[in-house]
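Colleagues,

For the teaching module next term, I've prepared a clean inverse folding example: a structure given as tokens, and then the sequence designed for it. I'd like students to try predicting residues themselves before seeing the answer, so please don't circulate the second half yet.
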């Protein structure tokens, strides 16, 4: 893994025409912008992990009901105002 220190406005270039720019930095985190050719797929890490998990579940034959049972239960809200 390459580890770099960058400041706001700094960028890095990745082979294949990909440019990553540090847009802003604050206490909440770092905002980055990614410029890439249209044929380059860009996915957030948590999305990749979720898809991999779902693929593993599908391969093991987990039923739709079992998948739904693992989802967080909605919280009830009082709408009486």
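(Answer key — instructors only)
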């Amino acid at each position: 893994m390459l580890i770099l220190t960058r400041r706001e406005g700094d960028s890095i270039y990745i082979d294949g025409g990909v440019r990553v720019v540090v847009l802003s930095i604050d206490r909440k985190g770092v905002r980055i912008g990614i410029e890439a050719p249209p044929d380059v797929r860009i996915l957030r890490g948590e999305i990749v992990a979720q898809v991999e998990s779902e693929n593993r579940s599908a391969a093991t034959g987990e039923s739709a009901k079992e998948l739904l049972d693992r989802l967080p239960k909605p919280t009830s809200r009082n709408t009486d105002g």
